[in-house]
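Q: What does the assembly look like in three dimensions?
Context provided by user:
Components: six
Sequences:
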Amino acid sequence: MAETPDLETVLSIVEELWPASLAESWDAVGLVVGRRDRPVSTIHFAVDPVSAVVEEACDAGADLLITHHPLLLRGVTTVEAGTFKGEVIHRLIESGCALLTAHTNGDSAVGGVNDVLAEILGLEDSAPLQAAESGLPEEGLGRIGTLPAGTTLGEFAAKVFGILPAVAGGVRVAGDRDAFVQRVALCGGAGDSLLAAAREAGADVYITADLRHHPASEAREAAGVGGRPFLIDVSHFASEWMWLPAAAQALDRALADRGYDVSVAVSGINTDPWDFVITPGR
Amino acid sequence: MAETPDLETVLSIVEELWPASLAESWDAVGLVVGRRDRPVSTIHFAVDPVSAVVEEACDAGADLLITHHPLLLRGVTTVEAGTFKGEVIHRLIESGCALLTAHTNGDSAVGGVNDVLAEILGLEDSAPLQAAESGLPEEGLGRIGTLPAGTTLGEFAAKVFGILPAVAGGVRVAGDRDAFVQRVALCGGAGDSLLAAAREAGADVYITADLRHHPASEAREAAGVGGRPFLIDVSHFASEWMWLPAAAQALDRALADRGYDVSVAVSGINTDPWDFVITPGR
Amino acid sequence: MAETPDLETVLSIVEELWPASLAESWDAVGLVVGRRDRPVSTIHFAVDPVSAVVEEACDAGADLLITHHPLLLRGVTTVEAGTFKGEVIHRLIESGCALLTAHTNGDSAVGGVNDVLAEILGLEDSAPLQAAESGLPEEGLGRIGTLPAGTTLGEFAAKVFGILPAVAGGVRVAGDRDAFVQRVALCGGAGDSLLAAAREAGADVYITADLRHHPASEAREAAGVGGRPFLIDVSHFASEWMWLPAAAQALDRALADRGYDVSVAVSGINTDPWDFVITPGR
Amino acid sequence: MAETPDLETVLSIVEELWPASLAESWDAVGLVVGRRDRPVSTIHFAVDPVSAVVEEACDAGADLLITHHPLLLRGVTTVEAGTFKGEVIHRLIESGCALLTAHTNGDSAVGGVNDVLAEILGLEDSAPLQAAESGLPEEGLGRIGTLPAGTTLGEFAAKVFGILPAVAGGVRVAGDRDAFVQRVALCGGAGDSLLAAAREAGADVYITADLRHHPASEAREAAGVGGRPFLIDVSHFASEWMWLPAAAQALDRALADRGYDVSVAVSGINTDPWDFVITPGR
Amino acid sequence: MAETPDLETVLSIVEELWPASLAESWDAVGLVVGRRDRPVSTIHFAVDPVSAVVEEACDAGADLLITHHPLLLRGVTTVEAGTFKGEVIHRLIESGCALLTAHTNGDSAVGGVNDVLAEILGLEDSAPLQAAESGLPEEGLGRIGTLPAGTTLGEFAAKVFGILPAVAGGVRVAGDRDAFVQRVALCGGAGDSLLAAAREAGADVYITADLRHHPASEAREAAGVGGRPFLIDVSHFASEWMWLPAAAQALDRALADRGYDVSVAVSGINTDPWDFVITPGR
Amino acid sequence: MAETPDLETVLSIVEELWPASLAESWDAVGLVVGRRDRPVSTIHFAVDPVSAVVEEACDAGADLLITHHPLLLRGVTTVEAGTFKGEVIHRLIESGCALLTAHTNGDSAVGGVNDVLAEILGLEDSAPLQAAESGLPEEGLGRIGTLPAGTTLGEFAAKVFGILPAVAGGVRVAGDRDAFVQRVALCGGAGDSLLAAAREAGADVYITADLRHHPASEAREAAGVGGRPFLIDVSHFASEWMWLPAAAQALDRALADRGYDVSVAVSGINTDPWDFVITPGR
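A: Here is the predicted structure of the complete assembly.
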C-alpha cells in the first residue's frame, strides 16, 4: 500500500529533478520554511509565494508549497508579521505548511521552464542560449530552436498569446506583423540579459518578459531599422506558469515510482500584478 | 530685426530652464555633439536619440536636436559608425546638427516632465515625491497631488490613456476598477525606485512606466490585499513625450524674449519600441 | 482594572526605554518574530535566543521573549527548521511567542548594560568611553568612572567575580595583583574595539569580555611593562546578564505606569558556552 | 671543525623546514630585521616578539630570534621607538639580533605546530582539517585524528591541561564531562574559522584557542543540545609554544647535518597575557 | 589593375599585423572614428591623435589616420567640439577621415614598437621583458637582448641619441659614463612598470621614457650604489615614433600583396610636448 | 648657557613650523626612526632619505636627519637590511641617528616648499593653487602669483634655471620662447594633478616637475594651439631642495629662540637620479 513520504524524502526527489547546483550564484533556492521530519501528503505548486497563494495552499491543507520565485532572495534580519514576507512565514508555520523554491534551477534544468516553453511552441533542435556553468550541454538559461515551418510574426505572436494563460496585458510585439519568422529564442521570466545572446544566435524573434524601454529600444536599434530579432514581450507570470503542470506531473510520477502516494496540485491563482488594460484597439 | 543665436547662446538659455545642477549624480546631461559657435536657426525636440529621430531632424535641417534620453549615458571609447551610437554621431556631425540632453534635470525642474504631467492631469497642490538634493522645494523627482474631484480607478485610467500619445501597449492597471481615487502620485519614465515613496505619501494611485513583475508584485503585496496605491503602468516614451511641447514652447519664448528668431519643432515619431499587442479583449 | 497590552503597545514602550536610533549601524534590533496585534501578558528576558532559552520561554507560556543578542544579525534567505535559527523561529511561531532584540541600543542607553555595570561596581562620575553618534552625552558604548576608594587589582577582581553570575571560566586578570586601581573602564560584551579608548581615558583597569591573545597582548605591550590599564576579562554572557533584572524592572514599571498588567521574568539559564575549566590552582 | 653560518645560510635551511609558500596569503613571514651577512652562533625561539622576549634574547647574546607571531603583520610607515613595535626594532638592531617569523607556514608544515600537537596527544591517522592550497596532502591548517583508545571528555581535557605549559587561565571545556571522546580535531592558535570543518569531519571534540562567545555559542547550537564536537578552549600561547622545542631541535639537527655549530634555545617566558584567574572552584 | 580597399578590408589586415588580442586589458584599441564601407586610398601614421596631426592628415586628404596613442582611453559621455577630443572627432568626421588605434597591441606584436627599437639598436637574441598573457613567446612588453660588442654607457647613450628623432629634451642618463654595457633592456613609451623586470633580467642598462623622480630614484637605490641597470630616459614620443616607418611599410606591403593600391605616409610632426631646454652644458 | 634639546623637544618645534595636520591624507609624515629621549645636537636636512644621504648624515654625526620625502610612504612588513629601505633603517639605528619626514605638510605650510619658490621667483600676491582642506587660506598645494614685470618665456625659463641647483637635465619648456609671461603658477615636486588648476587660475606659465608625455600633451592640447599656460618642467629634486636652506634656518631660529644650541646643516648631495644628458644643442 502506498506510503506518505516525509519532507526530507520529497526534498531528495526534488533535488534529482531540479538540482540546486544548476541555480545561478546570486539565487536562493531550496527549503525556506518547514520541518524535514513532517509527513507530506499534499503538495501545491505556484509561481509566486504571495499572500493569496499561501492562503489558498493553507486552506487546501497543503503540507508543502513549491514556488518558482524565492520569498527571501535578499537576506532578512526579521520575519515579524508586520512585513508581508514575515506574514507569509507566520501563516505557513502556523498552518504546518513548508515552502520550497525552485527558481533558476527550475529554469535551467532539462524539463524546466525554458524546455517546457520550447516544447509547447514546437521548437526543434532547441539548445540553451547560455549554457549552465556546471551542468550538461542541454542545461542552461533560455532556449533557441527552429519552428518546423516558418510563419509571419503576427501569426506567431497570436500562437504565443493563445498558448499562455490569459493575463490582462496580453503580449506586446516589436517588429513587422508580416515578417517571416522561423528561428525562435526564448527566456521565461525577465530575459533582458540575454538580448545580445538572442541576436548573436541568429534568432528571428525573441520571446521574454519584463522588457523595459531602454533595453528594448537599444536592442531594436542594434538590430538595425526593421531588423531581427523581433521582440515578443509576455507576462512574467504567464511565461513561468507554463512550467507548473509539467513540474507537478514530473514530481508526481517520481513520487509514485518510489511507492509514495501524494496529492499534487497547481494553483489556479493569477499572480500577474495587472488587473486590466486600456489599449488603442479597444 | 530678429537675430539667429549661436549654439553657446542657446545652451545658456537651456541652462536657465533646466539647470544641469538638478541632474542626478549618475546622469550625463548637456551638449553631446556640436560646435558652440555655429548658428542655430532650427531646433528639434524628441524623447530618444535613435536613428529614425536623427534622420528626421537632419532631413528637416535642424541645427540642434534636444532629447530627453542621453545617447552616451555610459562612457564610450569609440564612436565608429559600426555601432548604432557611433552611426548617430557620424550622421549628426556630417549634417552639422548638434545634440543636447536634458534628462533628469528635465524631470526635476519646475516646468519639467513631472510638472507637465501633474498639470495635464489637473493635480492640485502638487509637490515632488523626492526632493532634489540641491534645489528649490518644488524641484525633484516625481510628483504627488490631489484631483479636484475623486473618481473611480477605471475612469481615471481612461483619462490617463486619453491624454497620453497613443502607443500599442496602452496602459496597464493594477487595482479595482471601481475603487475611489483622488490622491495621485506620478513619475514620468521608469519610476520603480519611488514605489515606496508613493505609498508613504498616501497616494491612492501611482502612475509610472516600465514596472516589472517583481517590483509591481512586491508593491501590491506591501499595500495589502486590494490596498493602495493602485498602479497605472504607462509607456515610458509616452509619459516623457508629454513634456516636449511644453519644453519647446518654453524655449521658444525664452529665445524670443531675448530677440532671437528660431524655429522650434517637436518630433512626431513614436519611439515606443512596441508595434502591436494582442490582448484578451481583442 | 489593569489591562493586557498588545505587542504594538509593548514595542512603543521598549522604544522609549532603549531607542532603536541608539543601535550601531551594523546592528539588527527590534521585533524579529511575532504579530503586533496579539496580547502580551507574559514577558521573558534573556541574553541569548538559543534553543534552551526559547524552550524555557515557550514552556512558561511567554508571549514575548526579549533578548540582548540578535537571532539574525546577518540576513538569512531561509528559516527552515533544519538550521538552528530556523528551528528557533518555528518553535516561537508555533508557540505564539514573539521575539524582540535590544542589543547595542540596550548597551548604549541610559540604564543600559554599561550603566548597570557601572552602577553595580559603584563607579562615580561615569561617562561613555565612546559617545553615541546621535544621542545624549550620557549615551554611548562603554563607561569610564572612578571608585569612591582605591583598592588593589586583586581585591577589585574578586569584587567583580563576586558580583557577576557564576560561570565556569570565572574572570581572568592581566596585571599585578597588588597594584592600586581606582579609575575603571568597562564594556559589557566583547570590548576589544575600546582597548585604546580605555587607555587614552586614563583607566587603571579595563573590564570587558572575549579578549583574544593578540588584542590583549598588544594592549599590554602598548601599556608598557607592568603598565596600565590592567585587564579583567569576564564572561560575555555574565557581563550582559547583569542588565536583565534592571531592564525587566524598568519595563515592568513603565507598563504599570500606563495601567498595564504584565508578568515579567528573567531567564535563569546560563548560556555561557563553557561547562567546566581546569586551572593550575585546582 | 664546526663552522658558524651566516644569516643567509640559516634562512635557506629555515626555508626547507617551513617553506614560505605554505603561508596563508594574508600572512607576513620571513626575515623582519637583520643583516644577511652576519654570523649566527646563537638562535632563540619564542611565540611572541614582545619586549620581554626580545630583552631575554638580546641579553642572552642571541644573533637571531625566531618567533611564531609576526611583529609587522600589517604594514607600518614608521618604526620610531615610541611605538612598542618600533622599540622592539630599535632594541634588536642596536643589539645586532635578527628577527625571523615562521607563522602559518610553521602551522601547516609537516612537523609544524599542528603536527606536534597531534603527535603529543597521540592521535593516529591524523590529516589536515583544511588542506594547504599548494602543498602536500599532509600539509595544511588544523589536524583531525583518532585516539588509540576512547576516554571521557573530562579525562581528555585533564590530559590536554597536563601537556600544555601552565598558564593562569587553564583550559575551558564545553560539553558533558562524562561523554565519550575518541575522534579529535585541533588547531593551534585561534581556530574559530575551522569550527565547521571540525564538525563536518566528525570530531568528538575540537581543541583550539581564543574562542569568543558567539562562535562558541553558535557552534554548540549547531551541534544540537549536548551534541558533538565538544570544545576545549586552550591558551593561544600555550598551544603554539608546544611547537618550539620540536622546531628548535629540527633546526639544530639540520644545521649540524651541514656541519654548522649553532647554539639553539627556547624562551622560557610565558607570554600568555593573563596573570591570574578567579574561578568558582577556588 | 590595383584596387582601392574599403576600411573594413584595411581593418582586417591591421588585425593580422597587430592583433587586438595582444592589447593589455586596460587598453582601448581598434577603430575609433569612421565608416567601414568607405574607400581608403590614403593612410597616415602618427604617434598622437592631437590637433596638429589631425589637421595635417585631413589637409593631406587622408582617409585613415592610424595612431599609436588612443584618443579615448577612458570612456567619454560627450564628444562636443568644445573639448579637444570632441574637436578632433568633429574634424575627422567632417573631413571623412577615420581614426584607428594600435597601442599596446602595437607594442607587443612581432614587428611592433619594441621589436623595432631592439632591431635598430642591434640587439641579438632579444626576447620580451614581460611575456604576453595570450600570445606567442616572442610577443609581449619590453625587450631584453645583447649588443654584439660591449661599449661604454656614454657611447651607447650617444648612439641612442643619434638614432632617435631629435627632440628638445634629448636623452637623460643615470650611471657612470665610462661603465661597460652590453646587455640592454628597453621599453618604448612609459616603462616604469618594468624597472624591476629589467633588473631581474640582468640588464646593464634600461632604456625607456617618462621616468619620474621616485621610480628612478628607487630603481637606482635598489641597484645599489653605482649599480646596474643604468637608466636611459628618452622622449616618449621619439621612442614610439621609431615604429611608424616600419609599421607603415608593413601595412603598405600587406596591402600590395593583396593587390590594393594605397598611399601610406608617416607624419613628420614632432608631438613631443617640449619646445626647448636649458641645461648646464649650454 | 645654551642647552641641548632632546628629540621630543625638537619634534614639538617642527610641529609648530610644519604641522602634521597640513599633510595630505595619503601621506606619511613625522618621526620614522629614533628614540624621543635622545639628545639632538646636530640636525641634517635633505630631500631624499637615500643611502648616500644617510651615509653623509651618519658620518657627520647627525642625531637627526630631516627629509622631505618619506622613507616608508607605503607600509612595510619587514625592515631587513637586504631591502634598501631596511638597510637605511639599520644604518640609522646603528648610528643613533633619527629620521623625520616633512613632506606635504612641508609643501603646504607658510614658509614651505611652494612659498619659498614663489618668494625666490619674486611673485607678488601669491596664493595657493589648491587650498588646504583644514588650514589657513595661505596654506595649501602650489602657488599662483604675478611677476612685478612681465618678460618673455625664454628669459623667465633662464631665470628659473639660474635659481635652481644645477642638475644634469636642466629645465624643459613647452611654449613660444618669445611669448610674454607675467602670471606664474608653480608646484614643487610632481604637480601634474594641478595642471587644470593652473589653467583655471589664468597662469601664463606653470612650473613643476615630473611631467610625463600624456599629462603634458593633454595640457597643451587643452590650452589650444600655442595657448597658455606654458609649461616649465624642472627637476623634482631641485624644486624641493630650494626649501632646505629656508627650512634649516627657520628651525635653527626657533631652537635658538627657546635657548637651545643645535648645529643645523643642509646636505650638499644631488639626489636627482640623472647623471648626464645628451641634447641636440650640444
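Follow-up: The CA atoms of residues 204 and 229 of chain F lie 4 Å apart.
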